[in-house]
Prior knowledge:
The structure is a homodimer of 214-residue chains. By secondary structure, chain A is mostly helical.
Amino acid sequence: xxxxxxxxxxxxxxxxxxxxxxxxxxxxxxxxxxxxxxxxxxxxxxxxxxxxxxxxxxxxxxxxxxxxxxxxxxxxxxxxxxxxxxxxxxxxxxxxxxxxxxxxxxxxxxxxxxxxxxxxxxxxxxxxxxxxxxxxxxxxxxxxxxxxxxxxxxxxxxxxxxxxxxxxxxxxxxxxxxxxxxxxxxxxxxxxxxxxxxxxxxxxxxxxxxxxxx
Amino acid sequence: xxxxxxxxxxxxxxxxxxxxxxxxxxxxxxxxxxxxxxxxxxxxxxxxxxxxxxxxxxxxxxxxxxxxxxxxxxxxxxxxxxxxxxxxxxxxxxxxxxxxxxxxxxxxxxxxxxxxxxxxxxxxxxxxxxxxxxxxxxxxxxxxxxxxxxxxxxxxxxxxxxxxxxxxxxxxxxxxxxxxxxxxxxxxxxxxxxxxxxxxxxxxxxxxxxxxxx
DNA sequence: CTGGAACGGAATACTTTGTTCCGTTTCAAC
DNA sequence: GTTGAAACGGAACAAAGTATTCCGTTCCAG
Lengths: 214, 214
């Protein structure tokens, strides 16, 4: 794992290499978020490096995708843990959603899933992520501000909805996503509203994405 | 243009051909909705016909995509016009959204756009669609049930959000989409709610999808 | 000076896929 | 019954795209 701005304190070519580490990962994130099926050469082009620089660091495309996805999953975990430290169960919940949407974590995880064979560790992390999210929902419910018929899996619906919003400009994308998120949170917190239609989403109903897509 | 169940009254091979007309279009819709980049052979396989049956009807892949997209656009127009016949501006608005979401018209139009060069007629239809949607929003606003800071382009946000929800089973997909739509409509109708964040979506902000994607 | 780490990018090998082509089946008209 | 054309299935073909390898070059640390 390379920490950000690891290039500090290095000189010459070592420094350049460390910079490339970041540039490649950042470019991969940007390119693969735009289209998970992008050719690996686009990543190199976007990072301003040759293909070799990529293959020196990752054994192949899969490994890069896997890393990217796992990083997203870790980000999700970090945000969830940070949110759980918030004494207010409601702001913990809404703040978590906002930060996850802003970071586009959903695209990094769910939309990249299926493009590689996941490691057992990722499975464990995903499970833990589910537990943390459950805690967040429970604590939000305890505040009494959460609509009665909202279940854990509704988080997936919310994140999926927000991640779908996309315009060419990244900053504007974030703004528009926040607009949608505001609407959804607004509705989610309507304790007196009429029941939502249909059976609520069930556990595992969105796991199909993690199946290997050929 | 072929009307549904055109096969009635025909016999023998003519009948089979008319049936294939439908099978091919239906399969194309299903396959390309699942993934707009699907190979054309998947469509044939799904329809249970050979490739020739496809090429007898359409000069190429583009033409099939174009037809599918244009059909979706026409469906949008039809639903909008039907909704405008409703004397109640609010149920006209919500009913329109529901039917468009149920029919997955958004995927049919926006998500297929960019995979072909559009005809001038499609441009004209798209423009008219925009005007009709504007009317629907205006009439909804006139009822006083529409949140003040909702603009026409918010419809795009709503449809995009709903279209993003997808699980393997189509019927279940519809249910879950209705759940999200219920949340969004719920919030959209909160006349007393705090303002939504950020500048509202602008006209033409989603037109980028119609640019040819290579 | 110099050996090797790091790299750029052409070349390769392979897969995918749109389209064509041809032999075959089927049916309606004579 | 004969037949000719509509309709079709699917192999064959051609073009494109792309993951990966390979080799010559650059640059620095020791």
